[in-house]
């Protein structure tokens, strides 16, 4: 450890032992004391202290002697951030005065991370809503799962009490509309109450939440789950302040309640328009991904301080581990981050259970899926650099620093004490004679079960659901979700969103066949039932559910295909990859090749080992073995080496570590690039990468081989190879026709005997790519159905075609948008012909995008085109909407852009959108 680091750690550890009283008693640490304790020359200590001061790591207090304290710890003790202030104080009293500064402003919103950055506008909206005379403005909070909607509503309530808008005993009533989603009558009864006999089982009169919340706030979480009649009752109550219980005919009851709703859905599509119009304030909470890096780091520090407070131990976390945590929140925002931090702290606590030392968290100790967060972050070089600037090699969190419970009941707080569970189980296992290694492995598994089971209930990616609804109707999707839950229970394994896509498509295609009275041409499926008895039994159960719900007969062979689907689609995917190590003789030979690969293809999953020629082979083997242990991410390690004994290390290392290792010699920069491409981008397994690289001789000959093959194909993969796969084939065909004039055959295949089918296709075709519900793990890029729908898939297809030396003649059309919009408008329009107007609508969206200086993603573009298509029809039949809200609240620049872009309809279709319709379009961008 460097001298400066030893001095800093001494100040850090000893400042953490102080409290406000101790600092007030003129406590601190002088250069002489540090010199004596660390056995260093005083001049050297003074020099390093001055450097730490310049780097804003420590505080200097003048006097005799001059005293020093660690800055971050002092900030936590006095409750005040020394952001832009001098860190040199004339005396202790000057420093202590700062501790009273934060007490002068108790605005609860100041406790929110991002109050002055990413949440500044949202907080201004919230304050306006609370303070608006006479009783505040009803508010809707919108945001993905886990962004902090419930916390934000609590802060609004606290702010109302802080400003004396509410008295200190005002109620804050929370109700989750999803809890009674399947029983609308009971849901409305919970909110408004009911009289005796209002419905079966209503034996007594009951007060509703509206009455309980009188004089305070009623927070309706997942408000989109309210049925239309419930929304109507709510907006009548918002208008008049009166309501009736279920079973009453007159609205004669009164209550003064500020309503705050929260939803993960788009209000325009999930709530009645009449309801949305009565909510004047809509606050959108940004995702974790949208927050600035400073906010992300503050959240991590805050969550770590909560865990340090719980266990009363300091937590030291490596900077690389912090980066991995920042990149690990891929679906659940702050909620998932909290889960990840509790998981790594629990594992760190387990490792320190026999000592009073701090909890230490390094990158190597992280679970694979969290460790992979550093690769997600790898593409964002600016964020990586900002993190490096904000923290040193280590972040230290003390038990008394920064902890503050913002709300009393946090839905993301597990109902169990994880650390108590660990201690109790470790004690039991130790009493039974289990060794430490067994105890750690057993409890680590147990930690995963407790935390993941608790947090999985919050995983609900609304955007994924919207994507599926573009190709199947909601009834089928909801039924598929029910089946997914059933299958997970019956088979005791988790399935990801891709399974939901596959199942929804499968059911949709089956219902279409029934509707058209067509039978599926079944392939040879002998042995499927025998090989998969559990999946078959569940499929029989699904057959019975389908027959009961839809009153149709499900053929026995359909059960066989369901069995095939359940057995073929993988469990929840993890982020494991084959790790790559480049080892070569010379001072920088390996590093140079790896640096090129990282610059071209991004950081992640590859490291270099440079070896001087004079180094002992035994030392080299030890170094490579340690690097293999460090790099392994669950799918093995590929060694790319130059020559000599290195080529034989794979067998020895596998025997020593139990990690599957293969090696390829004659390493070159093209070989390294190809390995990274196949490991990280194609996600191929170790054997497949090894087999494909053995014959690799550089990109020149590789491209020559590809282009020499006359017949090229893209395969589309769905459960049966027919029905849904044919529909997918048509969509991909349209995309390819739009991209190139060269012939590429689109071949639909089923997941039954997929490898054999692909092997057969390869005899006649060079496979350019695969698209569908399952990755066939072949030496060709895979595009998932999700990516194809959300827009990235079409772009990926263009890149793949270009990389195969196929001439691109892109006609500039977004085929996915065109096909899906045209399909939807066919269902909505009666007088206008969708195939005639779709090109005009697409041009309108492109012109508007340019006028507004925005980029529309596929979902926004589809929503805009369908809305405007229906608006055009309303103009044709003279039945336009009437805009009843305050036009002055709409953005004038947006209105001008829409009006200018809408001129295209006048010139092309002789149809003019009136002002009211334009106002509604403008609302989509508010």
Automatic annotation (TrEMBL):
GO terms for biological process: phosphoenolpyruvate-dependent sugar phosphotransferase system; regulation of DNA-templated transcription. Residues 471-576, 832-926 form the PRD domain. GO terms for molecular function: ATP binding; kinase activity. InterPro entries: AAA+_ATPase, P-loop_NTPase, PRD, PRD_sf, PTS_EIIA_man-typ, PTS_EIIA_man-typ_sf, PTS_IIA_man, Sigma_54_int. Gene3D superfamilies: P-loop containing nucleotide triphosphate hydrolases, Phosphotransferase system, mannose-type IIA component, PRD domain. The keyword Secreted does not apply. SMART domains: AAA. Residues 112-346 form the Sigma-54 factor interaction domain. Coiled coil: none annotated. GO terms for cellular component: membrane. PANTHER family: TRANSCRIPTIONAL REGULATORY PROTEIN, TRANSCRIPTIONAL REGULATORY PROTEIN LEVR. This is Nif-specific regulatory protein.
